[in-house]
Amino acid sequence: MSDNEIIEHKQTWKERRKQQLYDELVQSAMKLFGEKGVDGPSVDEIVAETGIAKGTFYLYFKTKSDIVQAVIAAGISELEQRVTEASTHTPEQAPEALSRIVESVVAYFEKNRSMIALLMSGQGISSNQLSANVQDELRKHYRNATCGAYERIIRKGMLQGHFREIDAHTAAIALSGVLCGLVYEAIDANGELTDVCEQALDIVIKGITRRG
Fold first, then answer.
1. Burial of 150 (0-12, 13-18, 19+ CB in 10 A)
2. Which one of 62, 69, 117, 181 has the lowest number of neighbouring Cβ atoms within 10 Å?
């Protein structure tokens, strides 16, 4: 291995290690925020959960607000990626496509339950740890990843003749609200979140399906 290759290898390792530490901090904060709320855990608790020196935290984040924003943004980005992947493999017919998208959203929250309060109910996005501008930006990002996807498929279903002519935006918001309520009910009953999909879709799709 040449000197240049050795230097490049070291740089690559340092970059990987840097990204790894960043990801560990975000994951630890995500877990704690889900358990205690955004305002609860201190920076000391986050670094203790991660097992790194406090000084290392400030190499990545200037303030606690910065990691709150990073956690919320990371959660939305992963959710958006799941929805996008599901969208590229949805059936042609809108009712089945809507089911596939909703399943991808619920599967994300099943796997990342700490994000239910932070994203689905909006507690993290609305935290006073974040500026009003950042809140607005994150809220728009989340709505586009969820309600935006629902709305696009509902409009498609109207064009296909499956759904009656309604306000697709309102219907998408309604679906999001029904999902949120059923998810929390499932949590309270120690149930499976995957059971929520069928219930939510049954309620909403029956309401928007064209009759006759």
1. buried
2. 62
